[in-house]
Amino acid sequence: MKIGQATIKDIARELNLSASTISRALKDYPGISDETKKKVKEVAEKLNYRPNAIALSLRKSRSYTIGVIIPEVVHFFFSTVISGIEEVAFSRGYNVILTQTNEKLEREKSSINTMLSNQIDGFMISFSKETSDFDHFSQLLEQNYPIVFFDRVPDLDGAVNVIVDDYQGAYDATKHLIEQGYNTIAHLAGPKNLKICIERERGYRDALKAHQMPIREEFILECADGTPEHSKEITRKLIANFADKPDAIFANNDMVAAGAMMACKEAGLRIPEDVGIVGFSDWQICTLVDPSLSSVYQPGFQIGSKATELLLDMIEKKISADQIQSPVVLNTKLIMRKSSKKRE
Amino acid sequence: MKIGQATIKDIARELNLSASTISRALKDYPGISDETKKKVKEVAEKLNYRPNAIALSLRKSRSYTIGVIIPEVVHFFFSTVISGIEEVAFSRGYNVILTQTNEKLEREKSSINTMLSNQIDGFMISFSKETSDFDHFSQLLEQNYPIVFFDRVPDLDGAVNVIVDDYQGAYDATKHLIEQGYNTIAHLAGPKNLKICIERERGYRDALKAHQMPIREEFILECADGTPEHSKEITRKLIANFADKPDAIFANNDMVAAGAMMACKEAGLRIPEDVGIVGFSDWQICTLVDPSLSSVYQPGFQIGSKATELLLDMIEKKISADQIQSPVVLNTKLIMRKSSKKRE
DNA sequence: AAGGCTTATTCAAACGTTTGCAATAAAATC
DNA sequence: GATTTTATTGCAAACGTTTGAATAAGCCTT
């Protein structure tokens, strides 16, 4: 920090007034004459006075800062969420302190600790893939720290969770493929320890059931790391090993879908004529691949903004956690593009 | 913040010692008996003591927090840079406070102000597209605030800038197209107020010159907003209006390249046989589009980490700004993929 | 036994604010 | 002219920590 930044005391000295008077004058408290207010403000301006938020925090035991903990920043979905968080936080006068865990539990815990040390007013958390027990979260909840979980959320009493309707999204996607006339729909699933992935798989299964289609376990393949390379690999095998090939693929996310798409093209299969493909998340890549990829839109920005609204309301005691019926579920939306449109 | 968080005073009361002793004991200062140290640490543990970083900041006039100001979070390049920043900051014990300007100058200024209020130890800035004069930066520099600019950097005395060798990257890309036997290379340029874009265009021009190829101004088109839609539009016209069409395109970034690719396919042109395309940045999409897109890799993570290293070194007075020869230029790397490989 | 070192601890001020209460002075009331 | 009211300002403590200087006790030295 810069030495010589003007403080209230400097203004006080300059005007031969006390610090308390300056403080009140700057804040337009009643009981300060208009004349002094004016003078104080002039001098403040002249000295380029800037209130010291740290001192204020210490005094008020409030930092006007929220801590955001996410698995990774370089991720279309999460960066979109951050954007929503940042937007609301900024407009309500809060700072955002950000850390990424790189999917490491240890880092998650240590981030929580530094943030606690930094007296942040509340947490926004989407936990890492490594996180399987939630004790470190329970502790925070017990101590009444305001927390909102989003996307990857724990099953904890009293936790406020903001999620997307993964089940419905997956259901819609699968239903859409069925309605387009595809008969054997495979699913490239995500890691089983993430609820969101389980929900997507559940939506997929339920849609099949609802349309009296058999669920074939050999066509549900886990593509845990979610990279296009891995998915390409898996899809290759899927195509090669089965005489009776699937004619559609519902993928757990868009990267996986893109990988599957590459494998299909490589095998000489036409999309959407021979194989229909639907992804999940509706990333930018959907409109850039050829053919354009149908996908389930997740309102990332809204997740961020909604979650932040809730958190700030909790912090400012406008509402308490138990007044919020959790989880808050935001709607997904199926975006149909070429990759799944067999029929006109 | 949670009420009832244990403080040094609480430990002091419990052990009938003074606050100063506790402080020193916790920090293993000499002059405290081993016995007391032990007792203090036990009690600290028991009470779940956590140092109050805010109080520390006030005392030390140091917040161990750096402020990051970027145009937008939802952007592959910037999110990668953030990741690099976060990594280094975390490992050196600093917090990262993040704001995005959404390309608005006003927001840039106001972010600087809140960060100043929050006594951050230094700034990392990539400025907005609206920013054309740099007075608000000069002021900070004059007051000796540590700042490192990255990617979009101002021309200011005493500023430490970290950038990528855009010129060389563009030169390499263009040279590559020439060597592949393309004869008429168009350039889809970026907004002229960003130095990075001007540099890329300059690299393109110089590569043409160096190979005795004519520079045709009608084939240098500004695609200012950088969206694939816009670029598709422009490329369509480029193809339609000229009898003597370009047979290659060097785009200012990958999105623009992807848009151009779509327009070419639409017009029935084969890539890379009829048209060669090279983008810039090497985003994820490069491997997902068909054919895969050649591009110039920008080391985003390294920009972030290098810039942060420099900033923290400045903050910790290991080096001063004038000892750093600015700009620090990181190398780009041409990644050749299918979209530009006419020859084997 | 008095002075001088060590060792262990405490005191008090400081960082920049805010805020309940007290103090002062001027003005208004009777 | 004495008393109350009103308007304006100041005092001092507090938030949690660090740190230079001061203190107190114990031990050694001569």
UniProtKB/TrEMBL annotation, chains A, B:
Answer yes or no on keyword Methyltransferase. no
PROSITE patterns under this entry?
Answer: HTH_LACI_2
Please list the residue ranges annotated as the HTH lacI-type domain. 6-60
Q: Name one GO molecular function term.
A: transcription cis-regulatory region binding
SUPFAM superfamilies, alphabetized: lambda repressor-like DNA-binding domains, Periplasmic binding protein-like I
Cross-referenced Pfam families: LacI, Peripla_BP_1
Keywords assigned by UniProt?
A: DNA-binding, Transcription, Transcription regulation
Q: What is this protein called?
A: LacI family transcriptional regulator
Give the organism, scientific name. Answer: Algoriphagus iocasae
Origin organism lineage: Bacteria, Pseudomonadati, Bacteroidota, Cytophagia, Cytophagales
